[in-house]
TrEMBL record:
PANTHER family (alphabetical): GLUCAN 1,4-ALPHA-GLUCOSIDASE SUSB-RELATED, RETAINING ALPHA-GALACTOSIDASE
Any Pfam family matching the protein: GH97_C
Organism: Spirosoma pollinicola
Domain Glycosyl-hydrolase 97 catalytic positions: 301-466
Protein's recorded name: Glycoside hydrolase
């Protein structure tokens, strides 16, 4: 009788709503990834398995609000709604032309049982190559707005994976630095970790954490914190609003957070090929994109504004700009950037060191520079003019400045020194994109946070920095081949990045020295060529001065390579060692391989090609690159999908191939 009573009580507890709930599974379309949701009395939690192996152990989710406390304990879960999303969309600019958004989505409504009785929905999407979830705040009677002090999203990873990430001292950052490689368990609590961060498990499964659709919210980082069981777990950390440290987000309902994304595969190249970030963003808000044109651009600041011996005085004047415009017109380079000369920007400014002074005017050129004349001449040559501007010189007068740029005929600009990703700065960058589109201007953000796939929504965002790039050749020399091979598996996972490409003065390491003018390069010429394929940027720089390219081997490859693509394939990849990426435009393929400071042989399979013969133009490290790293060999041969090519990469070297359908 006692056993029967105990059994009856157990049954009663099991069916009583809110006291015990079954796991809710959200599986990827191919069934390999499983997101398992559970609601306990203390908090919602989730775990993630891949091929039936647990990658993320049960990890708690909660949100802390300024006045209404923690949303997490004592919740009830109402009926979830699941749907299959399967759509194809086109990108105006991107690493692919057509992308497939295919996932299973489940919306899980969560309600507080007591107190404010708030509702927050957890929306989960599981793709074949990853997981994404976000918090949605529907409109409701007793809750109209919120101030968020902490988003307590956690990631309790199994097996103590190897981490590759950028560690930062604080939130004020241009996100430029060397990546750290270490075991997850060795990271000290409260270490601020930038995203994307890559986690390599012992069985060579890969998981990267980042975010998508950063809109009206604070940028997210990861830190190690003590979990409920005393173990250390990765916990989200939001960039605080300016002037204080407690408040992170202020919002009016309805509202949504960005997506928290985990890219997952047992092939690291699949993370680079993934389109999850753009799939999680809204379609383009720019209706007419006929004016928008990706391409390559000069950037004379990098080379030191070098001009040849001429009859004109170099400087912020028409003749200097004409010299670069003529170079662009002769070499299929779409844009010339008007930046500065003699450490003074092209526009009027009474501040020092490019910092805007009280009388700065980003819509007025310095004396001696007629921007209308420059733009008119460039137009006759089929070249677009871009400019550089400090963001605080632009933003307070954004309407009048952009209106003047449009009248002159400027096509786009680099907006620099932003160095924040709090909610206020995120809104500022989105407004810059919106206003720029109204005036038919493209944008390149520098001193900025990582991309989050928003170039689908605002395709006039052609690239971002947020990485240590070749500009540091002018002052530190940290941009080595070992650094170059770290970013494809970290920063590149977030999307387009500017590397200040095109330096044509490689020297052996024992001859390397810092030069602000005519900077020197680590690695080989072929390594530099391959960077145009390995990186993703819809505004690739050709940053050296014109005479640096004249008659130089490999420059013909730079003239040919596009900046937007129809397809991408990662053919070879070993994290931190080497990578081969193939990108297609039309019927033509461009293949780039780079290695770290170690020489090696790798094999390139061509089974990704359609049937038929292809003419292959190969540019490879010459045998003497240890002494003359700018030397390369060129070869033409026929390739079919049955071929496998073995190539030799010198230390710090590279190789590029252009395939044309016969």
């Amino acid at each position: 009788m006692k056993q029967l009573l105990a059994l009856s009580l157990l049954f009663f507890v099991a069916v009583l709503p809110g006291l015990a709930q079954k796991n809710l599974h959200v599986r990827s379309p191919n069934g390999q990834i499983d997101f398992v949701f559970n609601l306990s009395k203390t908090a919602p939690s989730y775990k993630v398995t891949f091929n039936e192996k647990t990658l993320v152990e049960p990890s708690e989710l909660s949100l802390t609000f300024q006045q209404t406390g923690v949303f997490g304990p004592n919740l009830t879960q109402r009926k979830s709604i699941t749907r299959i999303i399967d759509e194809t969309y086109e990108l105006v600019v991107g690493k692919v032309k057509k992308a497939r958004n295919h996932c299973r989505e489940t919306t899980i409504p969560l309600y507080e049982k007591e107190g404010n009785k708030r509702q927050i929905n957890l929306v989960v999407r599981v793709f074949d190559d990853g997981v994404a979830f976000r918090y949605e705040f529907p409109e409701q009677e007793n809750w109209s707005s919120y101030v968020l002090t902490d988003e307590n999203t956690t990631f309790q990873l199994t097996q103590n994976p190897t981490v590759r990430a950028l560690f930062l001292p604080n939130f004020t950052s241009s996100h430029e630095g060397l990546y750290t490689t270490t075991l997850l368990g060795s990271i000290k609590n409260d270490t601020l970790m930038d995203m994307p961060a890559l986690f390599e498990f012992p069985d060579k499964t890969y998981l990267a954490i980042t975010e998508a659709a950063l809109h009206d919210y604070a940028g997210m980082y990861l830190t190690m914190k003590n979990g409920p069981s005393g173990s250390s777990v990765l916990t989200s950390q939001l960039s605080p609003l300016p002037g204080q440290t407690e408040n992170k987000v202020k919002a009016i309902l309805p509202h949504k957070t960005p997506w928290r994304v985990m890219l997952i595969s047992d092939r690291v190249g699949a993370l680079i090929e993934s389109n999850i970030l753009t799939s999680l963003n809204e379609p383009s808000k720019i209706v007419d994109v006929s004016w928008l044109k990706a391409g390559k651009t000069t950037f004379p600041w990098w080379n030191g504004n070098v001009t040849p011996d001429t009859s004109f005085a170099p400087g912020n004047n028409f003749d200097t700009q004409k010299y670069y415009i003529d170079f662009c017109a002769a070499n299929h380079i779409e844009y010339h950037s008007v930046v500065e000369y003699g450490l003074h920007e092209w526009y009027v400014n009474d501040g020092a060191g490019f910092v805007p002074g009280p009388n700065v005017n980003a819509a007025k050129a310095v004396p001696g520079l007629d921007m209308q004349q420059v733009c008119d001449y460039a137009k006759t040559k089929g070249v677009g003019i871009r400019v550089w501007v400090f963001w605080t010189a632009l933003y307070p007068k954004i309407d009048s400045v952009f209106a003047q740029y449009e009248r002159w005929g400027i096509k786009g600009l680099m907006v620099d020194f932003m160095d924040r990703d709090d909610q206020e700065m995120v809104a500022i960058q989105e407004r810059i994109l919106q206003k720029a589109a109204e005036h038919k201007l493209h944008i390149q953000f520098h001193g900025s946070y990582k991309p989050t796939g928003m170039h689908r929504t605002y395709p006039n965002e052609l690239t971002r920095e947020a990485t240590l790039n070749y500009e540091t050749s002018k002052w530190s020399g940290l941009d080595t081949p070992d650094h170059d091979i770290s970013f494809p598996f970290t920063r590149l996972l977030a999307g387009p990045m500017d590397m200040h490409l095109g330096g044509f003065r490689a020297v052996p390491d024992n001859q390397y020295k810092i030069q602000y003018t005519r900077p020197l390069m680590h690695g080989t010429r072929c390594h530099q060529l391959a960077m145009y394929v390995v990186t993703e940027s819809y505004l690739g720089m050709v940053a050296d001065y014109p005479d640096a390219y004249k008659g130089q081997p490999g420059f013909d490859f730079l003239k040919q390579i596009p900046t937007v693509w129809d397809e991408v394939r990662v053919l070879n990849a070993a994290v931190g060692q080497f990578i081969t990426i193939a990108r297609r435009t039309g019927d033509d393929w461009f293949i780039g391989s780079i290695t770290n400071s170690r020489a090696r042989e790798i094999s390139i399979p061509f089974d990704f090609l359609p049937e038929g013969n292809y003419t292959a133009d190969l540019y490879s490290d010459a045998p003497d690159v240890a002494q003359n790293p700018n030397h390369l060999t060129q070869q033409i041969r026929t390739i079919t999908r049955a071929d496998v090519l073995t190539i030799k990469l010198a230390a710090g070297g590279g190789q590029v191939i252009r395939l044309r359908k016969q």
